[in-house]
Specification:
- The chain is α/β, with parallel strands linked by helices and 358 residues long.
- It has two domains: 128 residues, Aspartate Aminotransferase, domain 1 (Alpha-Beta Complex), CATH 3.90.1150; 221 residues, Type I PLP-dependent aspartate aminotransferase-like (Major domain) (Aspartate Aminotransferase, domain 2), CATH 3.40.640.10.
- 38% of the residues lie in helices and 14% in strands.
- It has 14 helices and 13 strands.
- The structure holds pyridoxal-5'-phosphate (PLP).
Length: 358
């Protein structure tokens, strides 16, 4: 480390500085963060404003927002003592990792996956094992079982970001009950897939399920996520959570979202239909390989330079995610499913990009 005044940092930190960067040029069609392309209806936003107006802003929120947690638990079909709430599921992931990882411990993070997992594990000095996805980027239960034997934690996103792959529920149940590790199952895209490991948390003490309101529930800007664990494990994880982590605004908005869950989630089927339509079109292009996806995005590989394709699409006002820097994805891009007209704009921009990038 050149500057001796920075010696207070942990050894692994300087190498990690700037580890999570996102290139976000201003584009009319934004398909790079797997967001819900439809904002909240104005009437529901208004309802949130009205509720927040009634709450004192000078006072702390409740130390443990019990009533709110009970409503979230009901929404998720879990018992309140199993649920912890956070400022996005990322915050809960942080609490889980801080509770379980340190130098000398192993964490299995099958690659490629959501960047934040490895970033946090590296910050904590844990050893990262990347096995678990086969040559087609599908979960490999035997490889996971083997890797998990001497690991403290295994983290699986299902559907996985950015591959769209999912773990078979029978495989997962077998793995959880035959491994000493903590299994963190990130179900950020649950609504687009429909299968959940949540019921297992009632019996398995080594399982945590993460959910977010950032995707199907269109609440990424307000930051809300929840985790569900066995009633004996949840209070232990709570020790690593900051007090008052949820602000009154987020809580009011999440209550309104849960009360209107049916209409808030009404676009999920449309997104799934659009995902299959976009995939069909992509498969018609020569030189493009599309991976099957159970989420609200598609991963595709091209024979062209992905960075150049990305730039050409940006020049046409369409922003997708360049994931070619991820492990094993040197030729890949990821596109979030947007509104039908945005998806059409993406397909057109890609067609153009394929004509200008050799
Ligand atoms: C797998 C996965 N988990 C979690 C998140 C982020 O969730 P949150 O907005 O709740 O922090 C994302 C966002 O892209 C994701 O892809």
């Amino acid at each position: 480390m050149p500057d001796t005044t920075l010696r207070y940092f942990k050894q692994q930190l300087p190498g990690l500085a700037g580890g999570y960067k996102l290139d976000v040029p201003d584009c009319a069609v934004k398909l790079n963060q797997n967001e819900n392309p439809w904002d909240w209806p104005q009437a529901l936003k208004q309802e949130v404003f009205e509720r927040v107006r009634e709450v004192p802003w000078n006072r702390y929120p409740p130390f443990v927002p019990q009533e709110f947690v009970a409503k979230v638990a009901r929404h998720l079909n879990a018992a309140p003592e199993q649920v912890l709430v956070g400022n996005g599921s990322n915050e809960l992931l942080y609490a889980i990792f801080v509770s379980t990882l340190e130098r000398g411990r192993k964490v299995v993070i099958p690659q490629p996956t959501f960047t934040v997992y490895k970033l946090l594990a590296d910050l904590l000095g844990a050893e990262v094992v990347t096995d678990g996805l086969d040559d087609n980027l599908q979960y490999d239960a035997a490889a996971l079982e083997k890797a998990s034997q001497d690991a403290s934690v295994v983290v699986l996103a299902t559907p996985n970001n950015p591959t769209g792959s999912v773990i078979d529920p029978t495989d997962l149940e077998h793995l959880v009950f035959n491994s000493p590790a903590l299994w963190v199952i990130d179900e950020a895209y649950f609504e687009f897939h429909g299968e959940t490991a949540l019921e297992l948390t009632q019996t398995a003490r080594n399982l945590v399920v993460l959910r977010t309101f950032s995707k199907a529930l269109a609440t990424a800007g307000l930051r809300f996520g929840a985790m569900v664990a066995h009633p004996e494990a949840a209070p232990v994880f709570a020790a690593a959570k900051l007090p008052y982590n949820l602000n009154v605004f987020t809580m009011a908005a999440v209550e309104v979202a849960m009360e209107n869950a049916v209409s808030m989630k009404s676009r999920v089927e449309e997104v799934k239909r659009e995902r299959e339509r976009v995939a069909r079109h992509l498969r018609e292009y020569k030189g493009i390989k599309v991976f099957p996806s159970r989420a609200n995005f598609l991963l595709f590989e091209t024979s062209r330079d992905p960075r150049e394709l990305w730039k050409a699409m940006v020049s046409r006002g369409v922003l997708v995610r360049d994931v070619s820097g991820y492990p094993r994805l040197g030729k890949a891009l990821r596109v979030s499913i947007g509104r039908p007209e945005e998806n059409d704009a993406f397909l057109k921009a890609l067609e153009y990009a394929m004509t200008v990038v050799p």
